[in-house]
Write a structure and sequence with these properties.
mainly alpha; 53% helix; 13 helices; 398 residues
Length: 398
């Protein structure tokens, strides 16, 4: 990791509407993990609309029967994004309508613009129709596991983890939510469990005497809002590399399909294993049956624990998926990545996706949220999903 200065490179309509989409979702109070499937909706529609004009890659979900010659790919992208967002976030109509008008005003009037608008609108509607009843926000029951090792909500009165429907949502690229389910977590009486336990107990405590100031900054750096932080990263990458509208549409779609499926898969493993968080494990080590762990009834993590199980780390899965999407898109691990954090106000710069992954794994230990194994397995899961997505979709037509 290097500390750097945020980039000020330009954007395009795809990056603009990524920011608009994220802003609308945050303003609507959408949860962080569910934002990734919603961003996949938006960017798949953009990709299929733009790709229908460009034709260099295989469509993801929608192939129009006819495409007007000379249709504006920028107008198509704007229209597709707007149609998805106004459909799933009607409460944000005032903001979205204003952004839509401003974006289209920058494109000269004429047949190419009109054809692009109509194409984007129709592709988006067809895509949304294909996702009808896919499980988004469905009401599903949640049955708690019990006994040593079982997840316990972070506060009394909570009857389910956040987003209990997410493990059952129909994926975008994966065949099923469990396709990349993680292997079982270490048994409570194992040496691996004790090593994980003692590491997070020492480094992840709010009053840790072993965590350095640099490690604390790393922990808090990734305490930032996940979709906002990853969105800034991919927008900056697209701008730095001066991607065309077509290439930008493909990058963002590949990126968010991988992130959406990683979220679904991570929640599948969380729901299936229901492994307790470090705060519960450390406070109740007297019942884990492991001679190498010692209970601390007052142990508290650096930041408040989220309301979902430890295994696997969703942050690990998401960042594993997005770094793999970058590797697949650019064909190399040597990708220049600039990250910022609204929490710490600092910037981290990487030239290799593996360095970013290592820092993210450490960060979830330093913050006291996850064992190292939970985040490593999350990164592995996300990497598999990113690779699977790129190998099975978004392929050159020739």
């Amino acid at each position: 990791m290097m500390i750097g200065v945020p980039s000020t490179t330009r954007g395009d309509v795809v990056t603009d509407w990524n920011q608009i989409g994220i802003t609308a979702m945050v303003s609507a109070g959408r949860g962080q993990a569910p934002m990734y499937p919603d961003l996949a909706y938006e960017h798949i529609a953009i990709y299929d609309a733009v790709n229908a004009i460009d034709g260099r890659y295989t469509p993801f979900a929608v192939q129009p029967s006819s495409v007007p010659a000379g249709a504006s790919d920028e107008a198509a992208a704007i229209s597709a994004a707007y149609t998805v967002l106004i459909t799933i976030y009607p409460t944000q109509a005032g903001y979205l309508n204003a952004q839509y008008a401003a974006s289209l005003a920058a494109i000269p009037d004429g047949t190419p613009k009109t054809d692009g608008i109509n194409l984007g609108h129709n592709v988006a509607l067809a895509f949304l129709a294909s996702r009808a009843d896919d499980g988004r926000d469905a009401i599903v029951p949640f049955v708690f596991h019990s006994g040593p090792g079982a997840w316990v909500p972070p506060a009394p009165g909570i009857t389910a983890p956040n987003f209990p429907w997410l493990p059952y949502m129909r994926p975008f690229a994966m065949q099923s939510p469990s396709q990349f389910r993680a292997d079982p977590p270490p048994s409570l009486d194992s040496l691996q469990y004790a090593e994980d336990f003692n590491e997070v107990k020492s480094l992840g405590a709010i009053n840790s005497s072993t965590r350095t100031p640099e490690q604390t900054e790393i922990a808090n750096f990734y305490f930032d809002h996940g979709p906002k932080q990853t969105g800034r990263v991919v927008r900056n990458i697209a701008a730095e590399n001066l991607l065309s509208t077509s290439d930008s549409a493909r990058l963002f779609a590949m990126f968010y399909v991988a992130l959406a499926d990683a979220s679904i898969a991570a929640w599948d493993s969380k729901s299936y294993y229901q492994r307790w968080r470090p705060i519960t494990a450390i406070r109740n080590a007297d019942i884990d049956g492991n001679p190498d762990t010692v209970a601390d009834p007052t142990w508290t993590p650096l930041q408040p624990t989220p309301n979902h199980p430890d295994y696997v780390s969703a942050h690990g899965a998401n960042w594993g998926a997005f770094t793999e999407a970058l590797r697949q898109f650019f064909g190399t691990r040597q990708v220049h990545i600039t990250e910022t954090s609204d929490v710490t106000g600092t910037t981290h710069v990487f030239n290799n996706i593996d360095d970013l992954r290592r820092e993210l794994i450490n960060a979830r230990v330093y913050i006291g949220y996850h064992t190292r194994t939970a985040t490593v397995e999350g990164v592995v899961m996300g990497s598999k999903i990113g690779r699977y997505t790129a190998k099975n979709y978004f392929q050159p037509t020739n």
